[in-house]
Design brief:
Blueprint lengths: L23 H17 L4 E7 L1 H4 L8 E7 L6 E2 L3 E2 L2 H20 L7 E6 L1 H9 L3 H11 L2 E5 L3
Parallel strand pairs: 2-5
Antiparallel strand pairs: 1-2, 1-6, 3-4
Helix pairs in contact: 4-5
């Protein structure tokens, strides 16, 4: 993978032993992407996980790589009882988060798309009980993701 701006040069050890189907090139990309995500969010991350088809082991060559970044802080624009309460501030954060995802995809060394979900504790709480069933299923998938990096390790 091409170097990402701001990433450390040392390769980070990821927890991939439970995913024997992960290919060497994907492991290499993740070893660059995860540190980049940690630096992009100023280490305000409790966990980075893999979910979706690559976690389940049923990915095909065209499958995207679904990553989730669990933030340790709350955002002022989201409330666990009401959801988004300030759309303008939400838009600013989401644009920043999308820019991080675009940076990752601009520097990948493979043809896979990397989708990055960013969530806070309040978002997980809100979407696990409110909203359409697909959002509740999404939260279930996020909560049961495969941990690539954890701040407690």
């Amino acid at each position: 993978m091409k170097p990402l701006k701001g990433t450390r040069t040392s390769i980070m050890e990821l927890q991939l032993k439970g995913l024997p189907w992960i290919q060497a090139d994907l492991k290499e990309n993740l070893s660059v992407i995860v540190p980049f995500l940690l630096e992009s969010f100023r280490m305000d991350v409790s966990c980075v996980g893999l979910y979706g088809s690559w976690q389940r082991g049923d990915a095909d060559p065209k499958s995207d790589v679904d990553l989730v970044v669990f933030l340790i802080y709350e955002v002022a624009w989201f409330d666990s009882e009401y959801g988004i309460i300030n759309r303008l501030d939400a838009r600013k954060d989401k644009q920043y988060w999308h820019a991080i995802e675009k940076e990752v995809n601009a520097h990948r060394s493979d043809a896979r798309d990397y989708s990055i979900a960013v969530v806070t504790p309040s978002m997980l709480k809100y979407y696990s009980v409110q909203g359409p069933i697909h959002l509740q299923n999404w939260v279930h998938a996020l909560r049961n993701c495969y941990t690539l990096w954890n701040s407690c390790v």
